[in-house]
Amino acid sequence: MEKSEGYLFVYFAGEKYEDGEQIYFAVSQDGYNWTDLNLNKPVLKSNLGEKGVRDPYILRSHDGKKYYIIATDLRIYGNGDWYRAQHNGSQFMMVWESEDLTHWSEQRMVKLAEDGAGCTWAPEATYDKKTGKYVVYWASRVKDDNYEKQRIYYALTEDFKIFTKPEIYIEKENDVIDTAMIEHNGKYYRFSKDETTKCICADVTDAVINGNVKPIEAEYLKEQAQVEGPAVFKFNGEEKWCLLIDNYTGIGYYPLITDDLTSGIFAKPEVSYKMPTRARHGSVTAITKKEYDALIDRWNRSYN
Predict the structure, then answer these.
(1) Which of 3, 93, 202, 215 could make an S-S bridge to 112, C-beta 3.0–4.6 Å?
(2) How many domains does the chain have?
């Protein structure tokens, strides 16, 4: 596989804008300073379901041959109805595929959560070498407990078309949503939003599923109030990681840096940074120089 020399950020722009709940791209060479693509207009648009998509997650297939984008089927613009969204909306996951990041398949809509689930929020996926399948995880409220609490559920897939029956993945005393995960040295570090305290909590497990889970004490993360949508990535060629968190009350995304995921110690970067315009809950993947150049060439009307 070619050396990674840049980054692609895939995100949505929020329910304040008519076109905000669609798929946006930005690229970066250093992971700190981002360039909007396509004049900060949608790169992919949803034509199915609620015709709005949120919380997009991008991943490279385990064999390196293609990319997948998965996202929440949800439109809040024009209605603002979060009760409906959690109890009787956003029940599907949207999927796109690409071999080169510039040409994307037709969108498809997937029934992922169990019958009676009120929502299927912020799906993400991790390839599990032990099962040879992708573990897709998301947040749902379910009818069985009268939609009492948000939990993280998971299902397995080989192709993002057929999925196993969903099972509970993460359940906490408080509501939990927006789980992001990254592997390092055989361990999986998970970052989730505590929907009650509105901050990010962290844990580590020795397996993607059915592992031994230990909480990570991350006091600085607990001090970051009114945040959601964690997105985590490793800097190319460095033993250093970036955790992006979205302050949804005003400033939007900002980066926190660590050189030791196990420690739970994060800090704001010592260098200047520039986030994508209007970026809301999304994800980052490392890309090659060839892929970076192709993205610039395809959507070269960059807006600064």
Answers:
(1) 93
(2) 1
- Containing H/E element for 39? none
| DSSP per-residue string spanning 154-173 | EEEESSSSSBPPPEEEE--S
- Residue 248 forms part of a structural domain: yes
* 3-class DSSP state of 136: strand
Of the candidates 70, 41, 52, the residue with the CA atom closest to the CA atom of residue 276: 41
Rounded to an integer, the average pLDDT of 228-246 is 98
Phi, psi of 299 (to 5 degrees): -125, 65
Question: What Å distances lie between residue 20 and 25, 46, 70, CA to CA?
Answer: 12, 11, 17
- Would the pLDDT of 112 be above 50? yes
User: Residue 61 is inside which H or E element, if any?
Assistant: none
State how far the Cα of 88 lies from the Cα of 67, in Å rounded to an integer. Answer: 30
3-class SS string, 64-115: CCCEEEEEEECCCCCCCCHHHHHHCCCCEEEEEEECCCCCECCCEEEECCCC
| Residue 304 domain-assigned (yes or no) | no
Kindly state the average pLDDT of the residues 236-249.
Answer: 97
Residue 301 pLDDT? 53
| Residue 270 falls inside a structural domain | yes
Whether residue 303 is contained in a domain is answered as no
Domain that holds residue 44: 4-298
Confidence category of residue 188, pLDDT binned at 50, 70, 90? very high
172 Cβ contact list (under 8 Å, min separation 6): 194, 201
Residue 295 predicted with pLDDT over 70:
yes
Q: Which pLDDT belongs to residue 198?
A: 96
